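In this section we walk through a basic example: taking a raw amino acid sequence and producing a predicted 3D structure, encoded as discrete structure tokens. The instruction is simple. Fold the sequence below.
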Amino acid sequence: MEAAFAHRPFSLRFWDGSSLPATEPDGPTFAFRSPRAVAHVLRAPGELGIGRAYVSGLLEVDDLDAALRIVDSFEAPRLTLRQQAALGIALVRACGLTLPPRAPAAELRLRGERHSLSRDRRAVRHHYDVGNEFFALFLDRSLTYSCAYFSGGAQTLEQAQEAKLELVCTKLGLREGQRVLDVGCGWGSFALHAATRHGARVLGVTLSEPQAQLARERVKEAGVGDRVEIRVADYRELIEEPFDAIASIGMVEHVGEERIDLYATRLADLLAPGGTLLNHGIAKLKDFEADDEGAFSERFVFPDGVPLPLSRIELALERAGLVTRHVEGLAGDYALTLSHWIERFEGRYQDAVRLAGAERARVWRLFLHAARQGFQTGWASVYQVLTDRP
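The resulting token sequence is shown next.
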């Protein structure tokens, strides 16, 4: 193996005490705790196999961020047939002839038509079925599960999330009594802010029943039950009088190429003439041809979640008859938001294990670190696109 992988910016350590040192200083160490970890990597080479081994607890790394950079950038050398055969023999000697290990229980493979109503509901349930308490471990008090706004000078996560909610309200120009639609309302943070600070009447929709239940409790506690309704519904199912404003915050990533034009058209139809729509969402800056966010995220975190290029989102909005008035990129803000989430999550990691189990806790640890790397390296950004209907 040492000859086959002459250039190694990482170290390998195996269950029997043997190891393969890095050829560069400060490289991360991948510790394989069992032959099954190797079997996962061989069964699905790349991020999926490594992710499965990590989630299963069969693979440990001493520096998760450095390991993610290796997985993202390392290109394995081409092996000759002789090297492949020798490596195969060595692996059989080390691991024996065993059946491939089962995929972790936290992994999901969806069936049926992509982005159908039923499949989208299943995807959302998979992401949020870890429970409201789990998300409260790392989110701020408002339970805002999207990019915060630090660029205005906020110092804490709570301040930055409040600044983001106010920024959206300001861009939409909300006034007392206006009817507002909150698409993908989560636990109701924007709906509550728009109602309590600006006197708006808000309909929030989500596909997660646990989210909706907690959001309704928070609406009642805030005393705005007469102005805020939280409904479990898909945006495609809404039959309502046109709204004065629509906010879609952190939802467009789940629409996909298959439905992006329908999404834009449906929201445009729900917007009154002269009304304003703000679309806040992640957009990819690289790998434009890929039809998913990555094998690990597709199976473990956001099934069917595909950030589209900003140009594709803009095209859909324009085709729907909406006119773009302003675009703002917040990549740095999201990287900082994720740093705050990671610090909080790591500080309460044992609570995460207690609430969701070891596998799901490891999924989320890996996901949060990988997401931050995506914004730091320029793979993705997040944009607020402000449009109106003439």
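Looking at the output, two observations stand out. The radius of gyration is 23 Å. The chain has a mean pLDDT of 91. In the next section we compare this with other chains.
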